[in-house]
Amino acid sequence: MTYQAPIRDLMFNLEHLSQWPQIVSLDKYSEIERADAQAALEEFGRFCGDLIAPLSHDADTAGARLEGNKVVLPKAYEKAYAQFVDMGWQSLAHPAGHGGMGLPRAVGAAATEILNASDMSFGLCPLLTDGAIDALELSGTDEQKEIYLRPLVSGKWSGTMNLTEPQAGSDLGRVRCKAEPREDGSYSISGTKIFITYGEHDLSENIIHLVLARTPDAPEGHRGLSLFLVPKYLVDENGHPGDRNRVNCVSIEHKLGVRASPTAVLEYAGATGYLIGAENRGLEYMFTMMNAARFAVGVQGVALSDRAYQHALAYAQERVQGQGIGLDPEQVPTIIGHPDVRRLVLRMRALVEGGRSLSMAAAGWLDLSRNGTDSTRAEATPIAEFFVPLVKAFCTERAIEVASLGVQVHGGMGFIEETGVAQFYRDARILPIYEGTTAIQANDLLGRKVLRDGGQTARRFSAMIAETETTLKAGGPKAQDIAKCLGDARVAFNASLDWLLDIGSDNLRSAFAGSVPFLNLTGTLAAGWQLARGAHAAEIELEQRREPEFMAQKITTAQIFARHVLVECESDRARIISGASCLLDETSQL
Amino acid sequence: MTYQAPIRDLMFNLEHLSQWPQIVSLDKYSEIERADAQAALEEFGRFCGDLIAPLSHDADTAGARLEGNKVVLPKAYEKAYAQFVDMGWQSLAHPAGHGGMGLPRAVGAAATEILNASDMSFGLCPLLTDGAIDALELSGTDEQKEIYLRPLVSGKWSGTMNLTEPQAGSDLGRVRCKAEPREDGSYSISGTKIFITYGEHDLSENIIHLVLARTPDAPEGHRGLSLFLVPKYLVDENGHPGDRNRVNCVSIEHKLGVRASPTAVLEYAGATGYLIGAENRGLEYMFTMMNAARFAVGVQGVALSDRAYQHALAYAQERVQGQGIGLDPEQVPTIIGHPDVRRLVLRMRALVEGGRSLSMAAAGWLDLSRNGTDSTRAEATPIAEFFVPLVKAFCTERAIEVASLGVQVHGGMGFIEETGVAQFYRDARILPIYEGTTAIQANDLLGRKVLRDGGQTARRFSAMIAETETTLKAGGPKAQDIAKCLGDARVAFNASLDWLLDIGSDNLRSAFAGSVPFLNLTGTLAAGWQLARGAHAAEIELEQRREPEFMAQKITTAQIFARHVLVECESDRARIISGASCLLDETSQL
Fold first, then answer.
1. Which chain A residue has its CA at the smallest distance from B171's CA?
2. 3-state class of A481 per DSSP?
3. Among A27, B383, B529, B574, which one is most buried in terms of CB atoms within 10 A?
4. Within 13 A of A93's CA, how many CA atoms are on the CB side?
5. What residues of chain B score a pLDDT lower than 50?
C-alpha cells in the first residue's frame, strides 16, 4: 500500500480548528473560499499519492550519493521534482505578488503534511525553500526580492539554511564562518557549514543558500552574526543562473534515515554573498525562518505518523494470525481482532489526529499573527509563539512513538526493510533533533514564553482550555468524559506552571531540569485540547445528522486520546515538581 | 569509545538481588564462591571489551550476505568466535557434567549482558545455542545428550530455534512443516521455516536445528506439534559432522538492525530429523526453551541499553556546546552541564540499572525454580514464571527508549551512522518483537500468570513489595522517598489487578484491551522494587562506610527511577481501568 491523503480530516481541521472564519476575513485572503482550499488539497493529494508516495521506498534504498562534487539523487526524483514545479505546488501558500497561489498558512500546512507523508526525503527540499522565501520576504531588500523570490516561489530554484558548523550546533554563538566586505557591496564568504539539507543537488536550476557568518569587526557570540544570501550560481543581469559561485559540496552524510535527502558539508571559499537586512542582526532574521521551519518540522512529524498509521492499519486489517479473544470463531481472524492490536492502531490514530489538530490550530494563529490587524496581531502573536515549540516537540517526539508502534503492529515483518515501515522508524528519528532539539524547544517554551512574561500567556492558554471544558460538559457522555480528562491535565499544567514560576525566580537549574517534561505536558495538553474542540464541533455536526460515521469516529478518537494520552500529563507534573532535586543531586557524580 | 563491562554493578546485583545466599546453598552450586563468579565475569568483560565490542560497528556495516547457499559473515567474526570457543565462554552457565563451568544462572545472565552489549549481532549465536542446550538437557534422550550436548556446550556447534513459517508467527497452531516417520526411527522433515536466527553460517562446525513440525496423524492446531532435532551435518559414528543434511538456506533477510546476524529462510526437503521427547508435545518443550530465550532477550535489552548509555555519557562529558544554565562561566561548558542533558543521561542510567536489577533478580528465582528442593521450587516457580514476561517486556521496550534517548544526547551527530549510536536504535527495535511480541508477553502475564490462579501470585508479588517499603521507611530520607513512590505504584498495581480480576470473569476483551498497559505497569513496578531493594542494601553498606561513592550513587539512581519512571504506573492504571471501553467502541470502525 502507499498513501492516501487524509483530505476529509484536513478539511475538518481547517474548518473547525484553524480559526478559518477569522482567516478568510483578513484582507490578504478575502478572495479565498473553503472550496478553493479543498480543491487544491484534493489535487495535491492525488499528485502526491500517485506520483510521490510510490517512490519513497526505492528512493530510500538508492539514497543520495556523492560523485566528485556532484550529488546524485534517486533517478525518479528528477521527474517528480520537475512535475512538482510544473504544477506550481511550491507556490501554494506564497503570496500572489511573487507568483504564488496565496492560500492561507493552514492550507499550506496541510499540503506540507501531504507531501512529507508521501516522501519525507523529497519533501525536505520544498520545505527549506519555503523557509528561504519567508526570510527574504520579511528581511530582503526590494532588489533581492525582485531577483530571487519569483524563481524560489515557482520552485525552479531551491533554498537552504546554513547555520551549523562542527563546533556550533545548538550554540550558534560559536559560528566562525567569515564574511569580508568587498568594494562592490557584496561580501566574500569563507568557512565550513555542516548538516546542510539539500545543500547540493541538481533538481533545481539554482540553490539559494542563506548563511550565518561574521563580519570582521563583529562582536563575539550571538550578537555578531549576520545573514547572507549566497547563490550556488551567481545570477546574471537577466536573472538567470550564470557563473558558479565559490561554494562546494565536500561530502554528504551517511545517515540513519531520510537517506534520499542529501545532507551536505559545504565549503565556502571566498564565495560571493549579499547581506540580508542589517549587519549583526542575522540571528534575528534566522529565527523568523527557523520558527517557520520548526513549525514545518512538526508538520513533518504528523506526516510521518500518518504514513506509519495508514500502513499499520492496512496490515492489521489483512494479516491473518490467531483468533481475537472473545470474538466469533467464524470471523476471519485478522490481527485487528486482537484487543492489543486494536489498542496500538487506535493509539496511533489518536496521536496522528492530535498532532494534526495541534498543528492546524497553530497554523491559524500564526497566520493571524502575521497578517492580522494590529489588534488581532497583538492577541494572536503570544499564542502563536507559545504554540511553535509545542508543535515542534509534540509532533516530532510522537512521530518516533507512532513509527515504532507501526513496526510493532507488523511484528517480525516490520523489522524487514522491504516491508517499508522500518524506514518510517529511521526517518522519524531526525525530527526531534533538527531545527532545534526538543531540549532547545523546551528552553524556548520555559525561558522565552513562560518565565519572561511571568506566565501571562500560559495562564491565558489554560483559561481557554477551561472554556472548552465548560462547553463540553454541556454535551454528551463522551464529551463530558473528555472534559474531565482535559480538566485533570489542565490542573497538572497549572500546578507545574505555579511551581516553575515560583522556583524559576531563584533556582533556574531546578526549573530547567523539568523543562522537557513541562514541554511534553504542555504539548500533550494542547493537542488534547484541540481534539476536544474538534469533538465539540463533531457533536454539533452530528446533531445536524451530517456525516455521522466520520463525526462519531472523531469524538471517539478524541476520547481515546483523553483516556490514553492525556493521562500522561500527571506523570510529567510529578517529574517537574518532585523530580528536579534528585536529578541535580551531586551523588550522581556526573 | 567502545564498552566497559559494568562488573561492579553486576556483582552488586548478584550479591544483593539474585538470592545469592540461597543459590549457593543449592547442591548444584555448593562449590561456587562469589570470587569465582567475579573472576569469570572480569575475565569475560576484558575479552568482550577488548575483542568483541570493537568489531560491532564494522560488522554492522558489512552485514551478513548470502552467496549461493552460503552465508558470509563479517570476516572478523570467524576469529572472534574461534576465540570465544577456545576460551570456553559458551560453557559458562552450563553443567559441569557436559563440560560446562557450572556457574549459576544469574552469573550466566551477567555474561549474556556483557556479550550482547559488546555486539548483539554476535551475541545472538551463543544465545540460541544456550536455548538448544536447555531444551536437550530437559527433554532429550540420553543418547541425544551424549551426542549433542558436549559440542554445543563447548560452542563448537551452535543451535537454532525453528518455529516461524510465513503463515505461522505468533500463532504456532498454523505450523505446517511435516515430519514423516522412517523405518529407522528417524523422521523426514519437509517445509519452510523463516526468521531463523543464525540458521546458516560457518562459524561453528555444525548447526543443530530444533524444529517444530507435524507428524502425519497429528491433531490440528497447537496440540499436534512435535519437536525435532535436525543437524546441518549428520553426525557420524565418531560423533563428528558427516554428510550434509537436506536443509538449505534459500535467502537471508535485509533487516533494520542486527545486520551482522544472519536471519535465514530454511528449506527442509526431506531432511533427517530426530524426535525430541514424545510426539505432539513439541510446543511444551519449545516453551521451556522459549522461556529461557525470552529471559535472555530481556537481558539483551539491558545490554543494548547499557551500551547506548555508556556512549551517551561519554559524549555528554566531552562535547563542548553552550554554557549550562546557572553554572560557573569559568567551567568548561560540556553538554552534561545542561539540566536536560543531565536528565536524559540519568534517566538512561536509571532504566539500565532498573532493567539489570530486574533481570538479575529473575535469574535467581529461575535458578531456585529449576534447581531447588521441592519446597524451594514450589515457592520459587510461580514468581519466576511471573517475572519472565516482565523481564522480556520491560527490558526490551525500555531498550528502544534508552537507545532513542542516546541518539538524542548526540544531537545531529547521533543521526550519522559513523557515530555508532544509530545502530543501537536500529538493533533495539527487534527486541520487543522476537521470542514473542510484547502483546504475547502481556497475554502470558494476564492470562496464564494472573487470571489463571485468581491473582494469587500477583498478590504475593504485591505483598513482597509492601515489605520492602516497610524496610525502606526505616531508612534515610531518600529511602523514605523511594518507599513513597513504590507504594503509590503498588497501589496502582493493586487497583488494576482488582479491576482485571473482576472484569476478566465475564468480559475478557475489556481485560485484554489493558493487557499491555498492565504488563508495562507491572514490569516498571518490579524494576522499581528491585532498585529499591538495592537502595536498602546500599544504605547498609554505607553505614559500614564501604564504597561510599558507589553506594550513594546506587541510592540516587533508585530515587531517580522512582521519581521519573515509577510515576508512569499511574497513567497505566488509568488506561487499564478507564481506557478499555473507548478502545472497544465500535464507532472507531475498525
1. A322
2. helix
3. B529
4. 25
5. none
Q: B190-235, pLDDT tens digit by residue?
A: 999 999 999 999 999 999 999 999 999 999 999 999 999 999 999 9
Q: Which residues contact B247 (CB under 8 A, 6 or more apart)?
A: B189, B209, B230, B232, B266, B267, B268, B269, B271
A498 contacts: CB under 8 Å, gap ≥ 6:
none
Secondary structure E strands in B175-224: 178-181, 187-197, 206-213
Task: Supply the pLDDT for residue A1.
Answer: 61
pLDDT tier, A512 (very low <50, low <70, confident <90, very high otherwise): very high
Task: Tell me what pLDDT residue B330 has.
Answer: 83
Contact of A4 with chain B, judged by CB distance below 8 Å, is answered with no
Asked if A123 and A108 touch (Cβ cutoff 8 Å), the reply is no
Q: What pLDDT, in 10s, does the model give residues A351-394?
A: 999 999 999 999 999 999 999 999 999 999 999 999 999 999 99
> Are the Cβ atoms of B415 and A255 closer than 8 angstroms?
yes
**pLDDT tens sequence across A30-54:** 999 999 999 999 999 999 999 999 9
Residue of A nearest to B442 (CA): A340
φ and ψ at residue B328, rounded to 5 degrees: -55, 120
The answer to whether A436 and A294 are in contact (CB under 8 A) is yes
Point out the residue among B256, B553, B568 whose CB comes nearest to the CB of A589. B553
CA-based nearest distance B37→chain A, Å: 27
Best probe of the A interface among B254, B263, B340, by most A CBs < 10 A, is B340
DSSP label of A225: -
pTM (predicted TM-score): 0.98
Interface of A with B in 155-194 (CB under 8 A): 164, 167, 169-171, 174
Q: Is the pLDDT of residue A22 over 90?
A: yes
Non-local CB neighbours of B110 within 8 Å, separated by 6+ positions: B10, B13, B14, B37, B41, B360
The answer to whether residue B414 neighbours chain A at the CB level (below 8 Å) is yes
Quick check: B371 contacting A, CB < 8 Å?
A: no
A425-449 average pLDDT score: 97
Q: Write down the H helix ranges in B411-455.
A: 421-428, 438-443
Whole-angstrom distance, CA of residue B298 vs CA of residue B127: 12
CB atoms B563 and A574 under 8 Å = yes
Which residues of B are the active-site residues?
Answer: 435
Other C-beta atoms lying within 10 Å of the C-beta of residue A180: 14
Which residue out of A113, A435, A469, A541 is catalytically annotated?
A: A435
Confidence of residue A234 (pLDDT cuts 50, 70, 90): very high
Query: ∠ CA B360-B364-B369 to the nearest 5 degrees?
Result: 145
